[in-house]
Amino acid sequence: MEMNPRILLVDDETDFTQAMRTTLEARAYEVVTAGKRGEAEIMVKDCRPDMVILGTIMPRGDAFLFHKWLKQTPRFNDVPIIVINARREEEIIRGWRKDEGMRCEADDFLTKPIEPMALIPHIEKLLDKATQRIKVLVADDHAMVRDGIRAVIDLQKDMQVVGEALNGREALDKTIELSPDVVVMDIVMPVMNGLDATRQIHKECPRARVLMLTQYDDEENVLASEQAGALGFVPKAAASSRLLAGIRSVSQGKRLTYSPN
Fold first, then answer.
1. Taking the model in full, what pTM does it have?
2. How far does the chain reach from its first CA to its final CA, in angstroms?
3. Residue 261 pLDDT > 70, yes or no?
4. 134-251 belongs to which homologous superfamily?
5. In a designed cystine with 180, which of 80, 134, 135, 199 is the match (CB 3.0 to 4.6 A)?
């Protein structure tokens, strides 16, 4: 069963927190709260929120430090953040400093007072954007490779594995059936190799982008992959971050320039 979006509300003003909780829960959001920076960091680790609403907490500067920690922690740096700064008359005591505001990487920056209902459109817009996942089909005849790729992708909030294929023929059939955004395709597979499968996918399912993944990263295979219609080429020995960057790039229709280094 699909879970309701979970929002972490970080603020030490009881009235504001209660009003926000009541409004959000009435809209079927799951709400967890924290009133201090350390507590907020623990809650992020424990509940993995879909969004953070970062209000005012004391001492001054802790809101910025929590925001900075969130953006610098790889597991959580893709969580959308709405910052709600202190009221103008309290800004010098509780608000963000000018230099902190200039370094802010929040998705939205608002100022109190704000009606909870007025925040709903901001929340819905960011959550809609965050939940638009890249659908990935993994085609490789080795279960260990498929499992490894799935494990890496499952940690990403912006992508999901929608299917697996053991050979090129199955990759073509599942591309037609599942309409993935990206097919991660091995070259050497039984029944139909990855190059032939890519040609057919490029012809029959032009909206599906192919990212070739192989242990044979010589120039001949790179060229053959491009000629077959693949938008990118990543060696199996490459780091997982390179594979993820490749998936994100080709999903947008961008050609991934191959580099052996």
1. 0.56
2. 43
3. no
4. Response regulator (3.40.50.2300)
5. 135
